[in-house]
Amino acid sequence: MILKAQSTNMVIMKSSMDLADDVLCAIKRAIGEKTGFIPLHEPSFIGNEWRYVKDCIDSTFVSSVGAYVDRFEIDLAKKVGSKHAIAVVNGTAALHVGLLLSGVKEGDEVLVPALTFVATGNAVRYCSAIPHFVDSCEDTLGINVDKLRVYLSKNTFMVNSQCVNKSTGRVIRAIIPMHTFGHPVDIEGVMKVANEFGIAVVEDAAESLGSAFKGQSTGTFGTVGIFSFNGNKIITTGGGGAIVTNDSEIAKKAKHITTTAKLPHAWEYSHDMVGFNYRMPNINAALGCAQLENLDLFIESKRSLYSRLFFEFSGISGIRLMTEPKNCKSNYWLQTILLDPSHVHERDAILAHSNNLGFMARPAWNLLSNLEIFSNCPTMDLSEARSLEKRIINIPSSANLKQATVG
Ligand SMILES: *Cc1c(COP(=O)(O)O)cnc(C)c1O
Questions:
Q1: Which strand (E) or helix (H) includes residue 395?
Q2: pTM
């Protein structure tokens, strides 16, 4: 008996190791021989970064408000096709303000995918509102729209055009669709459900700058959308974020509330509400202007890396590479391996093998609903998110891994 158990165990260990080795060899073939540790994602500074930052320092206007902030906002709005963009200190601050300006108040509930970065849930809590977790869908890694519609139909009722949670009595005020690793969620479906139930949409497009759904940029579908320009995102301002909107009134308020709610005056300090110091400094915007000039090039590199990975992975059974959803263009911010459900037990072997040999690989985030800080929040059935949580592996994805055009 013991011998038999041991040998079964050995077989499992061997097959895990085989898959891990196949995956690593495929990554190596796609990326080419590299020396040193390959991070998951690193920025590329191959354009006007030095020039603009130096110019900013020479001008002494390094802090909030300055010519580069204006320019970055104009360039960003143009790039994504929104009327307005408001640059802020980071994506989390953008989410916070986006939620406030969408009417989220203390005691409201906000629908949040369980499978997202913690910032999405934190921003809801900054408004003293309560995240209400929703399930994912394997095709997009984002919100499962069909399941959400059925859930809301069963578990909410409408009062004065507001959607009320039957079991908590709280208003469900907003939903935050997130475009996971750059892949657009079914945003058309999310918009439909949100409109049916009178729920505001705040798009968390932190990871999906340059991605599009049916030709329209992610971030521009909801009442407001947000982007992040943290060091690990597709373009970076060091730290930074932005709110985009087509609503001029919201744009005006966003500028106001992120600039300590100071009333315009040549010398007087007058503030008409408790505002935030959330505006992006000029020196960060200078970096951002240069990065934005190369966004298309970064996306091209990432799409080409995807193609090579797809080719290399096609012969390996038990895994697949995440491909952009139908009718979508993805920026392929982070390349994603999805293990078949029957191979979940091999995830850790793949992670260990890859990291040990200098190719950084990471699992998905812990579902927010599993974190102690959100343990009392309402949730729907999360079976697909739970499955995805165990099956996702992100692998090196930097734009500079495509040597032919970048670097
Ligand atoms: C990065 C990220 C944020 C937060 O952006 P920061 O600029 O780091 O504050 C929010 N949501 C998602 C999904 C992200 O990936």
A1: strand 392-395
A2: 0.94
